[in-house]
Amino acid sequence: xxxxxxxxxxxxxxQPQGQEIATFLAAYHERLPIMLKGPTGCGKTRFIxxxxxxxxxxxxxxxxxxxxxxxxxxxxxLLEPSGxxxxxxxxxxxxxxxxxxxxxxIVEARQDTTVVIHPLTDARRILPLDKHNEIVPAHSDFQxxxxxxxxxxxxxxxxxxxxxxxxxxxxFGYPPPATESAIVARESGAxxxxxxxxxxxxxxxxxxxxxxxxxxxSTRMLIHTGRMVRxxxxxxxxxxxxxxxxxxxxxxxxxxxxxxxxxxxP
Length: 266
Known about the structure:
The chain is α/β, with parallel strands linked by helices and 266 residues long.
């Protein structure tokens, strides 16, 4: 099978926070496009991996970036020894063969690139390949999912309303402390006390959001920090390298964050 390499063999761990699983399943049943909204590192990618595994569908993930072109998604002609040959891009591969296509952080892509998905997000469910002179009807199993971080939206980087209104949206945030602690402990191998401490530190950093920080520490950062401690790094050093230094370059904000964290450390 062409898409066998995109299938997820083992269940990705995911702890539900609300009705996101039921919402996704309903949207998938109707083949409606889905937008996952939430801050960096809160579990959006893990969620879509879990859902692809649950549904038994291949998952093709594309990390959007500002240099991504429509050809990067749809495909292009390439010169080979036998001549010029058309190669499907990841989006076309998913459309043609029936995979879930996940466009991660879609707002990073140029707006003229994201327009290519519009015919796939309405009743037409087609992908026009102008350079190949082909219109690809979406396979019955094809489903489009994008992720979007509203915290980074601006006049320059934001999704057009004409794009956003085509999607069913699922809102993600950081889990409640007990749930987040359980996630950190499981994913990092940290003990329960360390996991709770790291979540407390994250909450202190998130309280500074809007006061010098664009975003607080993500669940992903806590997992990385827990793994550093498990590898033998002293906790204060792990917190500095895993949370404080990556989150801001402003020395005053670093000092304020370090002071807030120090009050949490044993």
